[in-house]
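Blinded run. Sample ID left blank on purpose so nobody reads anything into the name before looking at the predicted structure. Input follows.
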Amino acid sequence: MRAFPKGPSFVRQPADTNISEIALRLLVEFPGGETHIVGTALLIGPRLAVTARHNLDDIIERFGAKTVSEKTAVVQEYAVRLYQILPGPQYNIWNVSSAWPCETDIAILELTPHGRTHPQVPVAWVTPMLTFAPLAVGQTVAGFGYHSSTVDTPPQPGGEHHIDLNDAPTVTTGQVEEILPTGNPGGRFTFPCFRVGARFDGGMSGGPVFAPDGFVCGLISGTLGNVDGEPISYVASLWPMLLMMISAKGPGNRPPHTPYAMIDLVLLGTIKAVGLEYLDPSLFLGRILPKLEADIDPTSGRSCSRLGT
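Blinded prediction complete.
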């Protein structure tokens, strides 16, 4: 990633920006072609993505879900999908088969294939490096997301529908203005987060925020708009999601549907991350810390890792 500008910026990117390999469009699709654009999601591992929890809450509130138990709801009338654009361009469309909302403004998504430009070619997973290292007030961060989205679904022969999606992929930058380890108790952002002087537009929620080293340090959560001409926005910190218990298909010989903590995927290297030494040691109780240094190439400056399937 290039050096961030010193002052705030809000710069539209080309449609084929390479960030679209890891930052995916989040849509809701109904049979018959009705389609709604919700926000942005971030690929973090093979068949795993995250988005802002309020995106998931918005989907359930607007389009409904069948309550199965106190903690489980099932979507039946529509599909939640992520659209990924690869060089070429090539397209991967992923169904969100399961989702786990965290206590913070993060939701974890399990993905299954829906459609691909070249389904016969194995998926080469491109995933960003996450960082749990603390930020400092005054550092410049960069967010990415899709806004100003429109969609048209003209019918095709045979009853199919083609999706014409237009949006504005944008990089936004600004300085960290306040670190909020327990959130802002007097406002909407009551979870671990940090305040930034960067512009966030609707549809960018759930997109990645990059630290100065190019690693992902948070997710776009929301904004209070401008005060005296300056934006006031908030980024959800990543570490709380490590406590979340999920049952997505994971590595190793784990029995199907067996819950495990997200931090286990980091310790196994399935999710690439640095800065674990800054986390509360109680997160690691009963867990074995593998050597993670081999997953980081400090000489190349690369913040992504490719995994074959």
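Unblinding after everyone has recorded impressions. The first strand starts at residue 9 and ends at 12.
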